[in-house]
Write a structure and sequence with these properties.
Blueprint: H1 2-9, H2 13-29, H3 33-47, H4 54-85, H5 88-106, H6 118-126, H7 129-140, H8 150-155, H9 157-179, H10 181-184, H11 191-199
Helix pairs in contact: 2-3, 2-4, 4-5, 4-9, 5-9, 7-9
Amino acid sequence: MLKRIITIYAPLFPVFIFSAFVGSLGLILFKKTSSKLILFAFGILIWLPVPRFKINLILIGTFVPTLVHVYVFTGLFILYGAMKSGSITGYISIFIFIGCALSFYCIQYVPKDFSLSEYVKNSILQTGFASVNATAISLFKSGSTGIITQEDIFNSRRGLMVQRFIAFAYTYHYLNWFSKTEIIKWHLVPKKWLIGSVLL
């Protein structure tokens, strides 16, 4: 039953993601609840007619909740911090941040005896990241038939390039947020909340 429901509503998932994104802007921009709800509904109305468009599925359904979230938004956050403080090192860190991402595309070196363990392969497949990898690989694979195999994901140069970028983006994203103690106030979180988070 649940599988059938998911299958029916799967094409609408990008719509829900986009409307949540637009709605979250409303939480920041407006004070009135009615204005927030209107913007949330506006997000649904914009994308509801086009849930099956490929760009919708790729950009909103796949990349916004993953790579756009952890890389683009993190980059914008760093840029905003640099502009707000006028810090030279802040601006330098942006160039390094972008440079690291570009390096994974420019340097596609694969060690001669490289191989992935079954544990790593299963981790990527079971967490759903294989679809993110496959979608990203298809953007770089010229003459792609649209079918990305596990061989493409785990053993191709483009597959390794994409996975290096994903690993960098997520690692940097989490380290960046955990280092913002003054903003997020990790040190002020009640102990019972921290224990609950660790248990979860």
